[in-house]
Amino acid sequence: MKSEVDSYTASLDCVHCGLCLEACPTYGVLGLETDSPRGRIYLMRALAEDRIDDVDAIRPHLEQCLDCRACETACPSGVRYGHILETVRADLEEARPRRDLASRVRRLLLRHLVAHQGRLRLAFRLGRVAEALGLRWLAFRIGLLPRKMDALVPRIPPAAERRSLAGRYPAKGEKRGTVGLFTGCVMEQVFGRINVVTRDLLVANGFEVVVPASQTCCGALSLHDGQREDARRTARHNLQAFADCDVVLNNSAGCGAALREVGELLGTDEAHAFGARCRDVTEFLAEVGLAAEPAPFPHKVAYDAPCHLCHAQKVRTAPLEVLRQVPGIELVPHPTSEDCCGSAGIYNLVHRQLAAEIGDRKAAALRASGAQVVVSGNPGCMMQIRAHLDPGDGIEVRHPVELLLPSQHDRT
Ligand code: SF4
Ligand code: SF4
Q: Are 277 and 245 in contact (CB under 8 A)?
């Protein structure tokens, strides 16, 4: 089997030094070379060189990878692990003789539901009705859905928190510029409140905010699942939707990484230029400076860095820079801040056991930090961390934008 040539060539950069092993969460839990970055690169290279007879034997090792890209940060040779993995996963999907039911359902949902905002909104509306009728409770009660997933599957918020933000919102005070806001697919439906806060924060800081109605999913979930063509389709759509925006901001690290890397996915100048215009909202605010002082927040706060912000987008200091400007905040050290929490898109639903062990390690580190509040700029990480902390820990989980809002701000 031949993968895209550049991904095979990229795998040759690995010199097998093993410096990435300690950074790898699956190697940390399983202790197996085949579940380490070095081992997986070796397997992917062997696959590209047609030295693997039984492709199905190596599939689980590649599927168990979180695509957290901590190995990229640790690697002194600059191996582009994420790129290699995603292209090889796409090859494996193509070569699959028969997809199992779970894989077919996943593909169907990603292609025909998640990538269409209108259908997704309708599905969440129906889901909300089902929850109100007690069907969610029943599904977990009778074992249709495993009970352990209850904490990981978010409750659907009321309609007011799920409405589309499409429109143009004028800056407050002296206008400093205009920015586009990417509001996501599931993000809009489950964390719409965070989108509203992000918009209000930008408006309060002097920016006109444009939210194009025609934007769609970033394609990250399709990429992780090996559906590169589907990801390309949504990427082209977003290029058009944000064609008039000089800056495109997002508040979800997983989406941000996918948006930033569309150049590599589509291979056009236009796509590379689009990727270069995309920024995480905290990164942007650190660059331009806060014009509106955040409301006081006198709490001990631990910052947990989403993998796709620190390892994929290489945004490390910006969130801390802006958080330090919150009056009264005490940022407490969190030594495992850049370790994966086990969320990784839908990984924690598909690989529950492994994700739970990784999530428990994260929760233990957060308890030890003495933090009262954990902030993380990725909705999946927020849900995973919440699910693994006990209510008795008394630790709140928030998005950084929530701590940056000024005391007095008008809802737009
Ligand atoms: S992406 Fe994460 S889980 Fe996968 S090999 Fe690299 S460090 Fe390990
Ligand atoms: S991926 Fe990088 S750090 Fe890991 S074994 Fe290869 S060269 Fe070494």
A: yes
